[in-house]
Amino acid sequence: MLAARQFLRSSTTVACAFKAAPTLRSQSLLSQRFQSSVKFTQENQPRIRIGSLAPNFKAETTSGAIDFHEYIGDSWTILFSHPADFTPVCTTELGAFAALKPEFDQRNVKLIGLSAESAESHKAWISDIEDVSTHGAKFDYPIIADINKEVAFLYDMIDVEGWKNMNNKEPIFTVRSVFIIDPAKKVRLIMTYPASTGRNTSEVLRCVDALQVADNKGIATPVDWQLGQDVIIPPSVSDEAAKAKFGEFKTLKSYLRTTKV
After folding, report:
1. Which CDD domains match (predicted)?
2. pLDDT confidence of residue 38
3. Per the confidence metrics, is the pTM higher than 0.85?
4. How far apart are CA 111 and CA 207, in angstroms?
5. Which residues, including other chains, have CB under 8 Å from residue 72's CB and lie 6 or more apart?
6. In the predicted structure, residue 34 carries a pLDDT above the cut 90
7. Which of 71, 123, 165, 188 is most exposed, with minimal Cβ within 10 Å?
């Protein structure tokens, strides 16, 4: 286990976003990696939009080395980042995703987390996560070790202050990014939270359901939609085509029709 697990406790500091100074070992690892890191510039940073090909990378994780596109394979994938190891909000989030993993498995979705620290640090952290946040479930998905900041750079997982430090030897704290990526390696949904705000894992699962149903049935989903509820027929589909495809439907407005799938 890592020697230092003290959190910053200033009342004016967002405690969930930051952790205490790294151990001597992790400081050494950071120094070694930063010595060989490339210059990060806005000109070289990919611009990721919905529909973009997810940038590929190779990285060490708690499950060993991966090629990201090979990891995705023919599955959907959720890539999500965390400000730092041994931080309270991140611990609750990673545990909640672990507890929901069977639901994601049913939907052919792989999970993969990221924090800008070493795989050794992540592995020590996992035991804490299992102690307090998984509701008895085993933590069973990888966490990327991004101490050289390359993945954070590729996916723009950094706020304004973090960007200022990208080319320094100081650790950075990634924001809470979420990328839902389909089997074609296309980015289908992006969420970005500040370090202080924990994510809603049920909302991430709901978005996966909405994307998959939309792909499979050619529909859209309304506000607050949950799996099993009525969906929206796109305006581009005529009434005749809608009846042939969906059977019965309700017309609320000429442009708003709902049906069941």
Report:
1. PRX_1cys
2. 60
3. no
4. 14
5. 54, 110, 181, 183, 185
6. no
7. 165
Treating both helix axes as pointing N-terminal to C-terminal, what angle do 119-132 and 24-35 enclose, rounded to 10 degrees? Answer: 130
- Domain(s) labelled CATH 3.30.1020.10 in the chain stretch across 218-259
Q: Which residues are catalytic?
A: 90
Which CATH fold would you assign to the domain 16-199? Glutaredoxin (3.40.30)
pLDDT > 90: what percent of the chain? 70
Structure tokens that stand for 43 in this block = 């000109």
Topology of domain 218-259 in CATH is: Antioxidant, Horf6; Chain A, domain 2 (3.30.1020)
The segment(s) of the chain belonging to CATH 3.40.30.10 are 16-199
Residues 6+ apart with CB under 8 A from 215: 182
CA 28, distance to chain mean position in Å, is: 28
Q: What residues does 65 pair with on adjacent strands? A: 60
260 within 8 A of 245, measured Cβ to Cβ: no
Residue closest to 138 by CA, chosen among 146, 148, 130: 130
Q: What is the mean pLDDT of residues 87-94?
A: 95
Strand partners, 177: 192
Residue 152, Ramachandran bin (φ over 0: left; ψ between -120 and 50: alpha; else beta):
alpha
